[in-house]
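Anyone able to model this chain together with adenosine-5'-triphosphate?
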Amino acid sequence: MIGRESAGQAVARTVTARAPGKINVYFRVGPPREDGYHCVASLYLAVSLYEEVAATPREDDGVTVRLTDESTAVREPEDFPLGPENLVVRAARLLAERTGVGTGVDLAVTKHVPIAGGMGGGSADAAATLVACNALWGTGLTRDQLGQLGRELGADVPFALAGGAAVGLGVGDELSPVLVRQPTHWVVLPASYGLSTPKVFSALDALRSGQDVPTPSEVDPEVLKALIAADPQALAPLLHNDLAAASVSLAPELGEALTEAVSDGALAAIVSGSGPTAALLAEDAAHARQLVVQLGDEPGLAAHAVQGPVHGAELI
Ligand code: ATP
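re: yes, here you go
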């Protein structure tokens, strides 16, 4: 969406981009590296729950961020930082610095991906910001160049730019696209609380203390086949997340939510990334909608029926 907004005498151009949240359909985590990060083998799936970022130019070099009233994924406003640590501010400043842009931008974020939920919402915000500001400022970076900037902001940012489905190795940012033609259908079930990703990784290291943990080098080929075939029955028993035990150790109610989801009819239920959002696999779109109705009175934010893969960050 490239619109024109009147602000007194001035006419400002606003550019809006959106980027999807993700589910890790398969997630293996290795031992901690010397830099504190972990090597992973991840099968990422971009799903149809989007963040939107509207970028409006400023005459000075300031970069501001605010949440719009249409945001549905904010439990407490203070969960969303409004200072320089916000990933959208960091993304805009990084792009400006690397391309020599001297003017600033006001960024309005519409959040639908649960904050600190394990679906990469902050990364999606950063990806949408890079795409919106690249268009606003006419900086002309390619998607690959934006991906290079994105990996400086966070391991999940390159995938939020790329979208679709992808195997992620390294810290998750060495992406190989997976060609999936048919969607699978899911319900994402946010929790009424957040989990800090670094704390979940530390809890995993503590649970594995004394064990010899191998560095993962690939995603189980059977999972890839089932996702490519869009075969939910084959996929259900193959979903895996090494972080699940750590997330549940920090939030035991998450374990109960997963068990209940399966007794409510989900084909399988996994922790999404570091949690605490749960990803429930459905047979098809109608089954996903039915699960949302059944889960309607759970505490926390509303459940959403989603499908994936969907496109990565794009202008709207
Ligand atoms: P991931 O799945 O990539 O580990 P997540 O989805 O669990 O991440 P996010 O919502 O991306 O978690 O953000 C985690 C923390 O980052 C928040 O608690 C918040 O303090 C900080 N943060 C910085 N920028 C943002 C942003 N734009 N949106 C949400 N949180 C942000």
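The pocket of adenosine-5'-triphosphate is lined by residues 79-81, 85-88, 115-123, 125, 156, 194, 197, 273-274 (CB under 6 Å).
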